[in-house]
Amino acid sequence: MSADADVEVLRREGRIVVVGASLAGLRAAETLRDKGFTGSLTMIGDEPYEPYDRPPLSKQALLGRARAEDTALPRRREIDAEWRLGVAAEGLDRQAKRVRLANRDTVPYDRLLITTGTRARPWIHPDEAALDGVFVLRTRDDSVRLDRKLAGSPSRVLVIGAGFTGSEVASACRERGLEVTVAERGPAPLVGALGGVIGAVADRLQRRKGVNLRCGISVTALEGDYAGRLRRAHLSDGSAIEAEVAVVSLGAIRNTDWLAGSGLAAGPRGIACDAGCRVFDVNGIVTDDIYAAGDVARSPHPLFDYQFLSLEHWGNAVEQAEIAAHNMICAGPDRRPHLWLPMFWSSQFGVNIKSVGVPSLGDQLVVAQGTLAEERFVAVYGYHGRVIAAASFDGAKWLGFYQQQIEAAAPFPPEYGTVDRRTETLEPVDPAFPDPHLPTHGPTVTLTGHSPSERRVEFVPSHA
After folding, report:
1. What is the DSSP string of 301-364?
2. 41 with 125, same domain?
3. Which domain holds residue 388?
4. Which of 347 and 459 is assigned the larger pLDDT?
5. Which residues, including other chains, have CB under 8 Å from residue 102's CB and lie 6 or more apart?
6. What is the value of pTM for the model shown?
7. What is the pLDDT of residues 309-347, one digit of tens each?
8. GO CC annotations (predicted)?
9. Alpha-carbon span 459 to 464, nearest angstrom
10. Same domain, 125 and 245
11. Rounded distance between C-alpha atoms, residue 277 and residue 48, angstroms
12. Can you give the CATH number for the domain in which 285 is found?
């Protein structure tokens, strides 16, 4: 047997450990088996459940159309894995090739895939976060607890943050007939993801649907009663509102804490990896035995100036997991890049919102189909004279066309004589994104710069 054949056999054998019993983790495991991996496979997850679908938790589950416990992901095939559930990974020893668990067990690996995803950003004051009636929404258990509380018909629900998840929660509450106040520190809902021009449309939509929308306002404190139950919230304008339920929707935190001290390029922005999903170390050297996929990963994309992108998208998690699994058991020449074009969708207040590309990179915007006034349109974003993204309100049928334009680096502003436009204006305008140095709620695509490393180096001149 040749040396190359020996390597091929070794790649399809050995021990692969997947940290993160998530959508990405499951799809990677299934792909490994489909591609002929016959070695041992261990799945580690901090929740006690096998992988389940998260998007329905802020949509169908809150509307009573699906039970959180029924959101288990369908299996494409059996994966013949050892499941280590309900115990989090706590550390990584790259020298010994071992994952350390919170229960002090260690799990050895030959190759490691990290799919730990994100967790909901908690309320900033722990004592207030512990009040009865204060929730985040990320896990199956979160959804069950929140649904149970909403079923008690609270007098008012406060949603803190008007990104996609916060807006979906507000929509579900209104559909349940509940009074809802949304506090958003930005100038409009969805402003971090789609900009202020489109945010103004979301603003009108929410107000028309009965939401008490308070933009340019922060919640400064949550107050409880003597029994530890939420009773009111204090706002930055000096006012206070009564509320029995508060849903904190301040974005996500990437689950990289357990990698501290591991020597990997992992930090608050995610885990840096190359286009083949191989993880970088803190010196920018790519590893060959550690891979990352899903929400926790960030990788360069040629369509976006090779900046590192972190994508909180269902489709991206699946596609990246499949690429990572393929590359883990293939020789170098057979490896494939992960160049998935970002896509996102949301259903709220009776409107289907979809985007393709990276809207937040846009420096100009035109309404190419429909009109903002009708709340049915496609907005196209330009960046340095080319089409970079498109977002639609009840206009998803057009997005396939704009996906092709983005992939072809078509010029901006677009000029399509055969497309039904019915627009109020074709003049490019500033999409009105907030200052990127200020935090916003809910961007689902994050451009994280060119450097794969979280390390900051200070050069000190020597003196002879």
Report:
1. -GGGTT-EEEE--HHHHHHHHHHHHHHHTS-GGG-----PPPEEEEEETTEEEEEEE-GGG-SE
2. no
3. 343-434
4. 347
5. 46, 87, 88, 89, 90
6. 0.89
7. 888 888 899 999 999 999 999 987 889 999 888 888 999
8. cytoplasm
9. 16
10. yes
11. 27
12. 3.50.50.60
Amino acid sitting at position 324: A
Pick from 96, 81, 64: which is nearest to 19 by CA? 81
Domain identity same for 133 and 234? yes
In the chain, the amino acid numbered 82 is E
Residue 116 has pLDDT above 60, yes or no: yes
Q: How many domains does the chain have?
A: 3
CA atoms within 13 A on the CB side of 121: 17
**pLDDT tens digits along 147-202:** 999 999 999 999 999 999 999 999 999 999 999 999 999 999 999 999 999 999 99
Cα 330 to Cα 92: distance, rounded to the nearest angstrom:
24
Beta-strand ranges (E) seen in 127-189 are 134-135, 157-160, 180-184
Same domain, residue pair 205 and 274: no
Count of other CB atoms within 10 angstroms of residue 260: 11
Burial 161-180 (b: 16+ CB within 10 A, else e): bbbbbbbbbbbbbbebebbb
Amino acid in the structure at residue 226: Y
